[in-house]
Hints:
Number of helices: 9
Oligomer: single chain
Low-confidence stretches: none
CATH architecture: 3-Layer(aba) Sandwich
Strand content: 25-35%
Amino acid sequence: MRHIGRRISRAVHKGITGEESVDVSEMDGVRSLYLGSETVQSAMRVKAPFELELAYSRGMMMFLLFMKQPKELLMVGLGGGSIPKYIHHFLPEISTRAVEINPRIIQVARSHFFLPENDDRLEVIEGDGVAYLQENPNSTDVLLLDVFDSQGVPHDLYNQAFFDTCAESLRLDGMLAVNLWGSDKNFDIYLQRIEQSFNDRVLVLRTGRPGNIVVFGFKRPPRDLRWSTLRVRAKALQELHKVEFLEFVEKLKDENNSTTNRLLFNE
Length: 267
């Protein structure tokens, strides 16, 4: 998705790789965040600020399909804060921490995207996500990675040691969801690294063509991957959330091994 609309805010952050702008624009009632490029990093419909506007962010919520009662969620990379905001508003049983290295992004998420202030269920931490994961093993049920800059995914970050650390940060039944760009020349490399860190317990969900691909890694296999069970679960979730869970279940067939009866890992 490309940069369109009237710019309503610009801030400049001096990061590790130099100065990078944090821009906000608005068109047809949709407010969008850009980080030094014309690619939309986050979006919000102003009249429905707590809904998930972008398909990939709804795809990340598929952790609800596989985990019945997650209590703690950690997100590395904040963007406009769409997912933490959604969880805070609609899923009060989940406590969320988000780690973001760029203070300007945190400020903009709160000033322009209605991200709530920290409370007993939401904590936004300004800091290095890699260091945080290394210092907090076995600390969360769900780990979401949505780390992009003006050049896309920082390729130096997503090395094998990093994904090993991600796996170690999860509790026994925990799972990882990573937002990647399908046309990234390093996509297959990242996928192979995730597969290694999670012993091939990995699923892939394409949320657009071309576009974002969400990769899921499981600390241990879900108990029931039969299509019948997944569809029943997806239907129940879809009645509670404005997320196309049933459509995403069918899309899992496109990129993953399966039989007529069940979904399989890509082993």
